[in-house]
Amino acid sequence: MSNISLINLAVLGWFLVVWNGYTFYADHFKRNSRSLLTVMRKHRQGWMQQMLHRDVRIVDTTIMSALMRSVGLFSSTTLLILAGLLAILGSLDKVQALVRDIPYVVIATHAEWELKILVLIVIFVYAFFKFAWSLRQFNYSITLIGAAPPPSQAESSDAQAFAVGAAEVIALAVSNFNRGMRAYYFALAALSWFLHPLLFSVSTLWVVAVVYRREFRSHTLGFLDGIPGTGTQT
Q1: CA spacing 20 to 30 A to 166: which of 8, 57, 83, 127?
Q2: Is 93 exposed, middle or buried (CB count within 10 Å of its CB: 0-12, 13-18, 19+)?
Q3: How many angstroms separate the CA atoms of 86 and 116, rounded?
Q4: What digits encode the pLDDT tens for the residues 169-211?
Q5: pLDDT of residue 1
Q6: In angstroms, rounded to a whole number, what is the distance separating the alpha carbons of residues 230 and 208?
Q7: Cα–Cα distance measured from residue 15 to residue 206, given in angstroms and rounded to the nearest whole number
Q8: Rounded mean pLDDT, 209-220
Q9: How far is CA 62 from CA 57, 65, 119, 188, in A?
């Protein structure tokens, strides 16, 4: 710790507080407010209710498979990034020598470089676990589609409750995928730490502003919220 400056420890603490604070704000404090997640929950419930009326549900499993491919792509990419970061961690001296003459890059000790790489590794390990859990939840959702009541029972209370429950499982999968994607955004902010600690703190706020706008104030949200849905928002 003696080789790590106080400003680096301070901006790291700032980064963790801002990331966790935004996560709590977006996923818990405003979980029932107008956002991409809540609006899409309404449409997912409509999707599951429409699924109940279909004799052949190939279209539903095809959509789910496409979603799973996206999550699987990010899971695989995260593993490749982790492999690259571990390789860098094993050859820090060479990396430090390469960037030493780059203008505007703050001079950092070996311990500070290790800390920065380790922080990135932790971020992408977190992202991988979120993507992996999201992938499993999408697998469970496909099983639910296969176990859905037949069209003749689509209007029954049990079938409607099944549709709501299936939509919620998909919503959980999407929520975990969203947290994994959010980790990527904050990892981009952490990259600026290699240039300067103050730039890192500013980049963290910039990421929060971008993510907040996309989740709560984007034009996409306005269009999605304006599309009539057949589901009931919970």
Answers
A1: 127
A2: exposed
A3: 12
A4: 999 999 999 999 999 999 999 999 988 899 999 999 999 999 9
A5: 55
A6: 32
A7: 12
A8: 93
A9: 9, 5, 37, 32
Give the pair of three-digit tokens for residue 207.
Answer: 């990421």
Distance CA 209, CA 203 (A): 10
Question: What is the Cα Rg of the chain in Å?
Answer: 22
* Cα-to-chain-centroid distance, residue 158: 32
d(C-alpha 234, C-alpha 231), whole Å: 9
CA neighbor of 148 nearest in space, from 162, 164, 130: 162
pLDDT single digits (tens) 88-143: 888 887 777 777 767 777 778 888 889 999 999 999 999 999 999 999 999 999 99
58-89 helix and 157-191 helix, angle to the nearest 10 degrees: 20
Model pTM score:
0.90
Q: If you average pLDDT over every residue of the chain, what do you get? A: 90
Q: What is the pLDDT of residues 39-53, one digit of tens each?
A: 998 999 999 999 999
CA nearest to 216, candidates 10, 16, 31: 31
In 3D space, the residue among 178, 180, 207 whose CA is nearest the CA of residue 192 turns out to be 207
Please name the amino acid found at residue 179. Answer: R
> Hunting for tokens 């706008």 — which residue is that?
213
